[in-house]
Design goal:
2 copies of one chain form a homodimer.
Chain A lengths: L2 H11 L4 E5 L2 E4 H18 L6 E5 L6 H10 L3 E4 L6 H11 L3 E5 L3 H4 L11 E5 L7 E2 H6 L15 E7 L7 E6 H14 L6 E4 L6 H12 L3 E4 L5 H11 L3 E5 H9 L13 E5 L5 H11 L2 E8 L3 E7 H7 L9 E2 L4 E5 L11 E7 L6 E2 L3 H7 L5 E9 L5 E6 L3 E4 L2 E4 H9 L4 E11 L3 E10 L7 H11 L8 E5 L12 H9 L8
Parallel strand pairs in A: 1-11, 3-4, 3-5, 5-6, 6-7, 10-11, 10-12, 12-13, 13-14, 25-26
Antiparallel strand pairs in A: 1-2, 8-9, 9-19, 14-15, 15-16, 17-18, 18-20, 20-21, 22-23, 24-25
Chain lengths: 512, 512
């Protein structure tokens, strides 16, 4: 069954059960199905057909789930974009995807407006929120729609989501995820973690595939899904108590916020059965503290956009039986296969470092309109993750470093080259290396190392300000350090691994 | 992941865990993988290639799981046949499937020998058990095999099992089940019933798809699987106690045997978490008694070879919250869609009788070399089950009968199960079959055939009186006949067609 069909099924079996909760809005499964069908019929009337990309730029909101399901149900391709990107970055992705329709929050539409003349493919702008001149109003659209679905066959092999990840080359890469891919990764985690039936809470941004996945599997189980707009420890804990939440998914930044919040003991969290942690590795001490605090099962999930999550650490189990494995990302998840390979794609011996590869129905179909990158990523039928890992004889996977020059910060991927390209535009800069350095809150923090041209001057503030003009906030360096020279590799490339050493001294790994 | 790949995965993750137990033989997952690989390499050396059918005629035995997995792993098609069939019936199926290899129990091979000259396609006979002249010895074969797998790509869309179902027309029908089909139905039930990790017990014949399915999902979860050769209540209960069985699957005949076994209270069954009941409808009173006896979750699974199981009654849950639904087969299972249609394939209104249709990845690819029957069975993309059901507004499905097993009497339709459910409530009744027999006045007359529990007594009058208290007059049996035993089908269902023969001798048709 394609995932949107689960909504239909529960609308029939449990029509009055609450499906979605966001702030003071709620809808039942029957109402959700009705809204999904109306939106699908409205988009169809606008001219959206099977295979068309419908882009989405929204913060977390009540409408997010119905938008995904309506697009999927009509065989179109949901293309969620990161609302933290700049207008220029968003326009680049809109063009690349060739979306013919954009669903955008009224509060974000100004960012796009200057680029509309360049966006040749986008025929329709639909605004969610305040009515906005020159755009179609979302509520009007579904309010006047027939709810009659277009007659179209949607198969498991059709695309459901086009998920953009940053590109190392500076070119955006869109991972094509079919209904099959998402169905598989959802089932994998339902079984791997025995996800409870009941009530799910999502606080992570729903544009991200790492949130689409728990969103979908909660609906596959017929769970009520409560969505929060932002990370506020008190609000999260109060919601768990009030809605009797059984499942939630937290990133390390959320976990840190919750664990440092002083009022947390006030709340009744006894309904919680399972917390999935993800979006980058967590220190064993954080996992241990979380398990003690939440008194429920805590599972870590590791993976990436192209595969969903492929490894799982079962924290409470490992604490009990094998605490020494807590620094690992766990073992291969249900219905996935993994290998660790060298540069020639040969399996490396147990305990040796290599690239983590994964296989399974969850692995993406490829990158949108990038046959070469697709062939490389899926060489030999295995997704090459770019993560350098060590696997012990029992199959526990230890993340060590990244093949790609990429920083993972607060659940986002930042490709160093993109940031370096901007800094290089500063007239005083001779050479720049952007690296990730360890950070308690974000996992890793973006740092720029800069060599100035002889006789030129600039400041840390100036470099950061330049980046902020051009890049989404999470991509901008939090600090800049000036160097006289960089160590180089044999091929005269900057030896980033050497540069990183100074900042990672005392850490076992070189990624967080 | 194809299901045989799960064995490889657990052989790596839990090499020393026990995988299979049969009588005094046990093997670990590492040993099971080794045996699977050896068998696959041996079959490959014999000339078995991808897509070839390998027929199997075996009673339950230690080797059964490894045979399925080896055949599936090399992309060949496991074609298990009912060992209760006559030599001539088996030869017909062997010819129909075009199998090039037969794996057969030594104790059963004599049944085939007279037909060998006719079996043009079968090149190799492999005997399991005593060495048998003129056949290849199974143990020699795997003992001398390299274990080097043939280089072949096996996809989820390739056939895994060719499952013969009794043909109502006399022609055998082989349901083609792909790796995808079995993977889907297994996942469906793992999620639907939250199948426990631990230890599974299988007592039903492993040639039947109704057993392949729990066999496979237990291995997908990495569970130890204990197999018994036959239904012996004391042995079943002792095995549950000794192996700390968490999951088992029982047919109504097994349930009856267990519930009438006097020594059952002697055993510790506290490890049991879930019993799946299937292989035909069960009377509510049986379900209730089973739940009381086993003190664990009891789920009924309804479906057929062509789809796997599509509906599920959660007995312990329904007893608690909606006891009035216990006569139903439950609601549509996870990852399946169902409809109830009339002869023109239009949905019937809620509460009206129609044919149950199902859709999902578990639905077979079709019947082997029967394009017309396939087109008819899969009309409009929905599997037409041939089951007449009524569905209430909450989605509970009430099986009324097989399309052809309904009694038409005096212009009224009588659904046998409804009458049988009432007769089962009589404390003296062990087993009952209600059939239609020819009648001059009414066309067909309702007749009940009854087996009494050991030492119990009742009369025709008492049975009829019980029915009259509960059912409209036309539904009540006009006569009752007492039997010592019933003929059974492969899955131990009562062979009603055989029972009817006696009464319809001399008539051209079997309905009036």
């Amino acid at each position: 069954m394609i995932i949107p069909a689960f909504v239909d099924k529960y609308a029939w079996l449990y029509p009055d059960k609450t499906a979605v909760i966001f702030e003071d809005r709620r809808c039942s499964f029957r109402q959700l199905k009705d809204r999904v069908d109306r939106l699908a019929s409205a988009l169809s009337r606008l001219g959206v057909s099977k295979g068309d990309r419908v882009a989405i730029i929204l913060e977390n909101c009540f409408e997010f789930p119905e938008i995904y399901f309506a697009i999927g149900k009509m065989g179109a391709v949901a293309t969620p974009l990161n609302y933290r990107l700049t207008g220029s970055e968003l326009a680049q992705l809109l063009s690349h995807s060739g979306a013919n329709t954009l669903i955008v929050a009224s509060v974000l539409v100004d960012r796009i407006v200057p680029f509309i003349p360049e966006l040749a493919t986008v025929k329709h702008y639909v605004c969610v929120g305040e009515k906005t001149e020159g755009t179609l109003d979302y509520d009007d659209l579904i309010g006047t729609a027939s709810g009659k679905l277009p007659e179209v066959e949607v198969s498991m092999e059709d695309l459901f989501v086009l998920a953009y990840t940053g590109g190392t080359t500076g070119r955006p890469k869109g991972a094509m995820l079919t209904h099959r891919n998402l169905h598989c990764v959802c089932n994998s985690w339902i079984v791997e973690s025995t996800v409870p039936r009941g009530s799910g809470l999502l606080v992570t941004p729903l544009f991200h595939v790492g949130s689409i996945w728990p969103l979908c599997f909660n609906f596959m189980l017929g769970n009520t899904v409560t969505i929060l707009a932002r990370v506020d420890p008190e609000q999260i804990l109060r919601t768990i108590e009030r809605e009797r939440i059984t499942y939630t998914m937290w990133l390390s930044s959320i976990i840190n916020a919750i664990l440092s919040y002083l009022g947390s003991s006030k709340f009744d969290l006894s309904s919680l059965d399972l917390i999935t942690c993800g979006g980058g590795p967590l220190a064993p001490v954080q996992l241990r503290r979380l398990a003690e605090f939440a008194k429920c099962r805590v599972h870590f999930a590791g993976g990436q956009t192209e595969t969903g999550a492929v490894v799982s650490a079962k924290v409470e189990e490992q604490l009990r039986t094998q605490p020494e494995t807590l620094g690992s990302a766990g073992r291969v998840a249900y219905d996935f296969e993994v290998r660790v390979v060298d540069e020639q794609d040969n399996d490396v011996p147990v305990g040796r470092t290599g690239e983590l590869c994964a296989r399974g129905d969850a692995v993406m179909k490829g990158y949108w309109e990038m046959p070469e990158e697709t062939a490389q990523a899926l060489k030999g039928g295995w997704l090459h993750s770019g993560d350098l890992v060590r696997m012990d004889e029992k199959g526990y996977v230890y993340y060590l470093d990244r093949k790609k020059d990429m920083i993972k910060t607060g659940g986002e991927n930042v490709y160093c080259k993109e940031v370096e390209d901007v800094i290089y535009e500063h007239p005083a800069v001779a050479e720049v290396a952007v690296i990730g350095v360890p950070d308690e809150k974000w996992g890793e923090m973006v740092k720029a190392l800069v060599i100035l041209k002889a006789g030129e001057k600039t400041t840390e503030e100036e470099i950061i300000a330049l980046c902020k003009q051009r890049l989404a906030g999470f991509k901008c360096p939090k600090s800049v350090e000036f160097y006289d020279s960089f160590p180089k590799t044999g091929l005269m490339k900057i030896a980033k691994n050497v540069l990183r050493e100074k900042y990672w001294a005392g850490f076992e790994r070189r990624v967080h």
